[in-house]
C-alpha cells in the first residue's frame, strides 16, 4: 500500500497523516473497504479515507473516547455524503463500479469483506443509508446497536433499513461463490470459435448484459436482456472489436472476468456473474479510468 499523501499538503500535515496511517494500518484497510463498498469506486474511496485522516490530525485526541469508532463514523459519513451528491446514472449511459482484484493477497482492502461485483451493481438500487447498513451488517457483522451508534439512528431503523435492502436486492447475505474456471474457459472457447449453440448453453434465459464505456468510449448495446439478444451481441462485438486481442481469466470482487489485452494493456474487462453453472450477468467495462492495472 502506498503512502497516498497528497503532495499539496504542508510537510507537517503530510508526516502526521503518514504516521497515523502506519500506526493504524489494519484500521486503514477496514476504513478503505467500508468506503469502497459504499461508493463503488476504489479511487474515490482512497480520497474519502484520506480526507477523514487529514481532518483527524487536527482533532484534540483527549476529546476522542475511541479512535477507531471516531474514524469509522467519519469515513462512513464522508462516503454517504459523497454517494448522495454524485449521480451515478451518468449522462453518458450505464455506470458500473470500479472493480478491484481479489486474486492477489493485498489490494489495500480487506479482501474477504469486499462485496462481489454483481452485488455491488445491485446495491446501486439502494439508498446510501440502506447500503451502509447492509454492508456493516452483512460484510462486517456489526450488531444493530453498533450500526445505530455509527449512523446516528435507532436500532429499530437499522433493522428496517436492513430488511428493505435485502428485499430490494433479493440477497440474503454477502456470500462469495466458488466458481469453476472450466465454465469461464468454455465461455471463451464459445465466443472465440463463434459456437452459437455452445454459447446458448452457457447463458441463463434471463441473462443481462451491461456495458460502461465512460465518457470516451461509445459502446454497442449498453444494456441487453435475454439469451438470444446476448448471444448476438457478444458474437458481434467479438468479431468486430475483440478478435485481435488476447484474453485471460482474472478475478475481480470474487467473480471471474474475461480480460482482453492489447499487447500488455487491458482494454476490456467482462466480469461474469455465474448462477447454477451458467452466466446470469455480464458486466463489460471499457472505461480506461476503471480498468485494473493488471498486465498480461
TrEMBL record:
Gene3D superfamilies: 3.10.450.50, Winged helix-like DNA-binding domain superfamily/Winged helix DNA-binding domain (1.10.10.10). SUPFAM superfamilies: NTF2-like, Sigma2 domain of RNA polymerase sigma factors, Sigma3 and sigma4 domains of RNA polymerase sigma factors. It holds the Pfam family Sigma70_r4_2. InterPro entries: ECF_Sigma-70_Domain (IPR052704), NTF2-like_dom_sf (IPR032710), RNA_pol_sigma70_r4_t2 (IPR013249), RNA_pol_sigma_r2 (IPR013325), RNA_pol_sigma_r3/r4-like (IPR013324), WH-like_DNA-bd_sf (IPR036388). GO terms for biological process: DNA-templated transcription initiation. Residues 119-169 form the RNA polymerase sigma factor 70 region 4 type domain. GO terms for molecular function: DNA binding; sigma factor activity. Coiled coil: none annotated. This is RNA polymerase subunit sigma-24. It comes from Niastella caeni.
Amino acid at each position: 500500500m502506498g503512502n497516498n499523501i497528497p503532495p499539496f499538503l504542508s510537510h507537517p500535515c503530510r508526516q502526521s497523516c503518514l504516521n497515523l496511517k502506519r500506526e493504524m494500518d489494519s484500521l486503514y484497510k477496514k476504513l478503505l473497504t467500508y468506503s469502497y463498498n459504499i461508493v463503488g469506486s476504489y479511487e474515490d474511496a482512497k480520497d474519502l479515507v484520506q480526507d477523514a485522516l487529514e481532518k483527524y490530525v487536527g482533532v484534540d485526541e483527549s476529546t476522542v473516547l475511541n479512535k477507531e469508532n471516531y474514524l469509522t463514523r467519519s469515513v462512513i459519513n464522508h462516503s454517504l455524503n459523497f454517494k448522495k451528491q454524485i449521480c451515478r446514472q451518468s449522462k453518458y449511459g450505464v455506470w458500473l463500479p470500479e472493480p478491484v482484484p481479489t486474486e492477489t493477497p493485498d489490494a489495500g482492502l480487506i479482501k474477504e469483506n469486499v462485496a462481489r461485483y454483481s452485488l455491488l451493481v445491485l446495491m446501486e438500487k439502494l439508498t446510501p443509508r440502506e447500503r451502509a447498513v447492509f454492508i456493516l451488517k452483512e460484510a462486517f457483522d456489526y450488531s444493530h446497536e453498533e450500526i445505530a451508534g455509527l449512523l446516528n439512528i435507532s436500532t429499530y431503523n437499522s433493522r428496517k433499513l436492513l430488511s428493505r435492502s435485502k428485499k430490494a436486492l433479493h440477497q440474503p447475505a454477502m456470500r462469495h461463490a466458488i466458481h469453476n474456471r472450466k465454465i469461464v474457459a468454455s465461455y471463451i472457447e464459445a465466443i472465440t470459435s463463434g459456437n452459437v449453440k455452445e454459447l446458448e448453453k452457457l447463458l441463463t434465459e434471463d441473462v443481462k448484459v451491461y456495458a460502461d464505456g465512460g465518457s470516451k468510449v461509445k459502446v454497442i448495446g449498453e444494456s441487453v436482456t435475454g439469451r438470444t439478444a446476448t448471444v448476438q451481441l457478444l458474437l458481434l462485438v467479438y468479431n468486430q472489436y475483440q478478435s485481435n486481442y488476447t484474453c485471460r481469466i482474472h478475478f475481480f470482487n470474487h467473480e471471474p472476468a474475461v480480460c482482453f489485452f492489447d499487447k500488455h494493456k487491458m482494454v476490456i474487462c467482462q466480469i461474469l456473474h455465474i448462477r447454477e453453472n451458467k452466466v446470469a450477468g455480464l458486466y463489460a467495462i471499457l472505461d480506461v479510468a476503471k480498468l485494473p492495472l493488471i498486465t498480461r
